[in-house]
Amino acid sequence: MTKLTWGMIGGGEGSQIGPAHRLGAGLDGAFEFSAGALDHRPDAGREYGQRLGLAPDRAYGDWRKMLDGEKNRPDRVDLVTVATPNATHYEITKAYLEAGFHVLCEKPMTMTVEQGEDIVRTARATGKICAVNYGYSGYSLVRHMKAMVARGDLGKIRLVKAEFAHGHHADAADADNPRVRWRYDPAQAGVSAQFADCGIHALHMASFVTGQEVTRLSADTVSCIASRELEDDAMVNFRMDGGTVGRLWTSSIAIGRQHGLTLQVFGEKGGLRWAQEQPNQLSWMPLGERLQTIERGEANLSPEADRTSRVTIGHAEGMPLAFANLYQDLAEAIRAEKQGSPMDPAANLYPRAEDGLRSMAAVFAVAQSGKADGAWVDARPPMFR
User: Fold this and answer.
1) What is the pTM for the complete model shown?
2) Domains of the chain and CATH, by start
3) Which of 166, 180, 134 is nearest to 233 (CA)?
4) What is the mean pLDDT of residues 322-340?
């Protein structure tokens, strides 16, 4: 099968997220890394791109030159990943969608709800894929949780509890560390810090697994380190459109927590628990029975889990493989579009622009509620109300 071609904007040398994308995109052989504008410093971006194997004429100095260079090529890239600083996501994603490219954008997709609605409308108008990198939804057992909920194993879902808490910003002495400081500066981060950075991953996971969307929420936000303008801890209660009650805690000052993304789902007939730091195990407690451990890679799991389990049982799978599952989904979606054929429903799980928009609406709702002492507010974007 002919490889699809892939380009990347951002994610240059020293980037935290760039290597995970390159590993994920290349893992299955579905995509060939063909073009890139990898650094805000043009010469550094071109040089690094060529070191990674890009042809000199497709190692671009910036995203605009890449757009101009690719849009009229007969072999132009099939998918563009946007992994630049948050404030640039909207402009770049919109420009590439309008030029007819499929896009995978890092989260947050935009900086405002209005921008998010514009991206949704643009994607719909162009008919192009706009995916958002909620990469944790690519884990095999997270998809198995979703399948279990959908087929009714848990009965009606009563409660979902999500956490994304770490302690890596707990040192007040880091107040002037530029790698930390910008996250709590409204001029650079927007209206939210910790919830916009980590909390939206947990919130997306709750919606992804339950198949329900958040309708309203109440938030208690606090800056535990007083010099910070934006929150470093938040507790959010929310309600979902299927009647499920939600609880979410996110923090960057929880010393002793490392990554901290966990999800628990409780229904009438059983409960599930999954943690990103132990992604190969899923705890399952059927009502009135003993606690069970479901292992990634074991026999007789769901199609959604089977197609995304890549190594034999007992061996660790991690974040780059979860990213690879999203790229595998996107490859199938792009091929289906090219061929005019349906795609496998078990692969049709990549997060959409609509998910990115809902996350941004939730960010603003959390900020509004936090300033109003936890008042309940509508968490839906206006176009979905």
Assistant:
1) 0.95
2) 4-132 (3.40.50.720), 156-267+356-378 (3.30.360.10)
3) 166
4) 95
